[in-house]
Amino acid sequence: MKKLIVLLFAATVIASSAQAGEHNCTPEEMQQKGMEAATAMQSLAATNPAKMQEIMQALQDLQVQAANTKGSYSALCKKYDELLEKVKG
After folding, report:
1. Domain span at 35
2. Which residues does UniProt assign to the signal peptide (predicted)?
């Protein structure tokens, strides 16, 4: 599961890096948010696997959106923040 999370995160960073300069959310911020999400998901997998599976789908959906976004990434940064709240909350 850890490898899956890392691979999904890497795909998001790569997909978003090329387009992230067009808004307030920088590639570095997207990378940081992705790392936070991956770390939080690893912790959640150990404590609440059912919740982790539920949130994993949201993370995968977010990564697909990032790969297909052509423009502002501000909304994606906000969605990463919301995802982190679910994981931590």
Report:
1. 2-88
2. 1-20
DSSP letters for the chain: -HHHHHHHHHHHHHHHHTTGGGSSS-HHHHHHHHHHHHHHHHHHHHH-HHHHHHHHHHHHHHHHHHHH--S--HHHHHHHHHHHHHHH-
Look at the chain and report how many structural domains it folds into.
1
Which residue, among 39, 41, 21, has the nearest Cα to 30 in the 3D structure? 21
pLDDT in tens, 22-80: 447 876 787 788 788 888 888 889 999 999 998 888 888 888 887 777 766 787 888 88
Q: Could you give the CA distance from residue 16 to residue 87 in angstroms, rounded to a whole number? A: 22
